[in-house]
Each structure stands twice: as structure tokens, then as C-alpha cells.
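Subject: for your reference before the review

Hello V.,

The reviewers asked for a structural picture of the protein, and I figured it would be easier to keep everything in one thread rather than splitting it across files. Below is the amino acid sequence we used in the manuscript, unchanged from the supplementary table.
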Amino acid sequence: MTTFRLFAFAALALTAVQPAQAGGLPDPLAELEVLDGGLTSRGTYMAALRLTLPEGWKTYWRTPGETGIPPGFSWRGSRNLGAVAFTWPAPEVFSSDGFHSIGYRDELVLPVEITPEDPGKPVRLKGRMTFGVYKDVCVPADAAFNHTVDTEAGRNPAIAAAMASRPFSAKEAGVQSASCRMQPIADGFRIEAHITMPSAGGREYAVIEPGTPGLYLAGSGTKRQGNTLVATVEFLTDGAAVALDRSQMRITVLGSDHAVDISGC
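And here is what came back from the structure prediction:
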């Protein structure tokens, strides 16, 4: 296990913070650990990036919602790294000033399944992670990591717990159907998804990821009509033409009981 201490990296962002708030920022903003989880039955290795945040602080999910900073990853400098696959634990929805953000409070353990290029050689994970942390203000942060995977490591309880908290698949959640309608709006387009499924509990919130980068989320809403959940999302494109592949679209329904991951629409 390797630990790194993180600090704010964007001076421009910090200039927007009031002096009293700037002086009250925690030091460090977070701690990053690379966890080892051992060899899988598929011949891959499990690892995880664990962000530990100061009390009351949060970080963002892969899609931050209507406000926030999406996390980014660079693996430049890694060795014998064929592929990586993330398993995102189910996040929470946070509301403030009429906007919704999506993320984790206090800690994020993000499992990473690693496929080596050569199974007989060591795997070195080297790169950077960029992300946002927030409480009263949102602050971008940046961390470098450099870790040699422990191929003899055993099962890691923290990684196992994060894997267990992933969203249910559509089949596991009893999703019967999911269809999407798309229509143009000024400077963008609107997607309306109709999902026939049992309730995920409480006030549900649906996230639609169109599978196309470079789009700006302008607004969203979710309501239930009997057995059907209706989710509406608007994206801005700055007038550029956008081609959407329905098979690459992804819908995540977040409820108080569980979350559901739906591929394609």
C-alpha cells in the first residue's frame, strides 16, 4: 500500500475563495492510497485508489452531476499495463442551491482491475489522478502515484466492500425496458428516458451518460409515473453537430435502497 498526500493545484480556482475560507482549507485536502487486492481467477490483478477526505468533505463520481469536476486519470509512465477497468461504487446525490452533484463523502475506494501485457512480469502503476473536493467551495486537486503491484497480496476487505457496493445490473434490478427519445433544443438536445422498473427506493435520481465526450450538462429531472421512471436531461453542444450511439448510452438510477446500471437506451 502506497500513500500520497494531496494539495490544491489550481491557483486560479483558489482566487475565487474568500480569504477566510482560503485560510480554512484543510491541509492536505485528501490522502491517496494505492491498495493491492491480489490475483483474480481471470489472471488479472485487483487494486484500488482510495481517497480519504477531511471530515465533511466530498469528492465527485465519474459524472459529477449539474455541478462539479469529473475525475481524470493518466497512466503515463506505467509499465506492463495492458488495460484497466474501474468498478465505481454507488454514489450519493447531494443537493445545494437547487443543483445536484453526485459523489462520495469522507472516502472513495475505487477498484481497478489490471490486465498486464505480460503476465510473467511486474506491473508498475504510475500516473496522475485529477479530481475535485468540496465542502463550502469546490477545489480541484491533483495527485501523482507510483506503485508496483504486489502480485502476492491477498483479498483486500476495503476493495471487496467497494465491489459489493456497485450498482445492480438491469437484470438484477428487474428492469423490464428502457427507451429514449431525443429532440433538439437551442444550442443542444434533450434526452427523455422511459425506464420500466421497480423502485430503487425513496426519491430516485437518474443520470444519463450519452457516451459522447465534450457535452455540457444544462439540466436534469427525474419523476416516476407508476412502474415507469421518466428521466430528462439537456445537453449543450455550442452548435456543433453531435452523433449519438444509443448502444453506448448509459443510465444510472440512484435510490435510497440501491442503484441500477443500465447499458444502452
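For the response letter, the relevant points are probably these. Residues 192 and 232 are 4 Å apart (CA to CA). The first strand starts at residue 2 and ends at 8.

Happy to draft the paragraph if you're swamped.

O.
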